[in-house]
Amino acid sequence: MDIFAKATARMGPLGQYASQVHGYFTFPKLEGEISNRMHFRGKEKLVWSLNNYLGLANHPEVRKADAEAAKDYGLALPMGARMMSGQTKLHEQLENELADFVKKEAAYLLNFGYQGMVSVIDALIDRQDVVVYDSESHACIIDGLRMHMGKRFVFPHNDIDNLRTELRRAKKLTEKTGGGILVITEGVFGMSGSLGKLDEITALKKEFNFRLLVDDAHGVGTMGPTGAGTGEHFGVQDEIDVFFGTFAKSFASIGAFVAAPREIITYLMYNMRSQIYAKSLPMPLVVGALKRLELMRNHPEFREKLWTVATALQKGLKSRGFNIGNTQSPVTPVVLSGDTPEGANLAHDLRENFNLFCSVVAYPVVPKGTIILRLIPTAVHTLEDVEYTLDAFSKVKDKLDKGEYATGKIVDVV
Ligand SMILES: Cc1ncc(COP(=O)(O)O)c(C=O)c1O
């Protein structure tokens, strides 16, 4: 069998819809400066799809720092992996400042969050160890665990009783293998907006001997009094043993970092394959991240504005009878009942007739019969944007309830 024949015969769970939605719901081209308003297919849209939480993407100081760093250093510098020839003072400075920001002893940069997380997990555990992880963990956690040769036990999302049961199993097993236990969860779950119950999870440390790794990709900059993340929000940041953050959300850039006690960071520097065998993060990304961090620290009003918009949006949706699940973060899912064509038709109506651009999640990403429209409020949205959006949502909900989107066919978008 030709590998290529297999690939084209079945395109995969998402790829199977490519011919119907490519360029519209998948791979859409959003154009113009990153903001609350951008262009899609030549028309201005109110955009609720970007994790530009603090509005830093297009902040003039950020744009200036990015441009100047590109001019001063270019993208090549430094050449080689950190360990061999890619170390700079600015990489170290950024790491020190990040560690300080998330209240950890030390930090290390990762070129991408995704590969970085895979490698953190790979480096931390071996076959004697047992991992206990939340069932809604991000793909990068799942892929890190795919490489694990030992046991892994999953607990249903945020089900602490079940976590306790799995920890008991893990404890028994590690008593035999001589290994340790690593618990993995997230700070903010990016799809639902729910928070990992870090207060309850860390409380279990008294009973069970485990280390805790938290992916706080969506929590850095958005959660906690100083933006240090979801652990700070719960007052348990110290209890997180290994903290993971990315530059792909609040930082509006690319790259990521891991933060932990100094000796663990030193161990990771010498054992994370994604960093040992890959080129160092280019200078403009490092300088750009330093500028973003400075703004994040000096301008708490960005986070306050994000929360003002998020709270208005979430309160408004709830008061209009929408189901927004269990979000406790700015991530705002709107859960509707309907099949995939209905969801697509509704989102098409929102996009074309109300000029609202938001992400649509349907089966197979969520269970059949459910459609989730995911809204990401940011500090660059206004309360007028919120009012406009609430009215539009009420109108499309009315149409959905009347069955107006149920044609059985996705409207022609390609
Ligand atoms: C929860 C979570 N973890 C990890 C990542 C991966 O980070 P990166 O985009 O830096 O690869 C993402 C997405 O960006 C995410 O949402």
Structure description:
- This protein has 414 residues and is of the alpha/beta class.
- The chain folds into 2 domains: 3-53 and 300-401, Aspartate Aminotransferase, domain 1 (Alpha-Beta Complex), CATH 3.90.1150.10; 60-298, Type I PLP-dependent aspartate aminotransferase-like (Major domain) (Aspartate Aminotransferase, domain 2, 3-Layer(aba) Sandwich), CATH 3.40.640.
- 41% of the residues lie in helices and 15% in strands.
- It is built from 15 helices and 14 strands.
- It has helices spanning 3-9, 18-21, 60-73, 89-101, 113-124, 139-146, 160-177, 198-203, 230-234, 262-269, 273-276, 283-298, 300-319, 340-353, 383-401; strands at residues 30-31, 37-40, 43-47, 106-110, 130-134, 152-155, 181-186, 211-215, 242-246, 256-260, 332-337, 356-357, 359-361, 370-375.
- The strands form 3 sheets. Strands 4-10-9-8-7-5-6 form a 7-stranded mixed beta sheet. Strands 1-2-3-12 form a 4-stranded mixed beta sheet. Strands 11-14-13 form a 3-stranded antiparallel beta sheet, covered by helices on one side.
- Helix 6 links the parallel strand 5 (130-134) and strand 6.
- Helix 13 (300-319) runs parallel beside helix 15 (383-401).
- The longest helix is centred in the last third of the chain and has 20 residues, at 300-319.
- The protein is globular, with a radius of gyration of 22 Å.
- The two termini are 32 Å apart.
- Bound molecules: pyridoxal-5'-phosphate.
- Pyridoxal-5'-phosphate (PLP) is lined by residues 112-114, 117, 138, 140, 186, 190, 215, 217, 246, 248, 256.
- Pyridoxal-5'-phosphate is lined by residues 112-114, 117, 138, 140, 186, 190, 215, 217, 246, 248, 256.
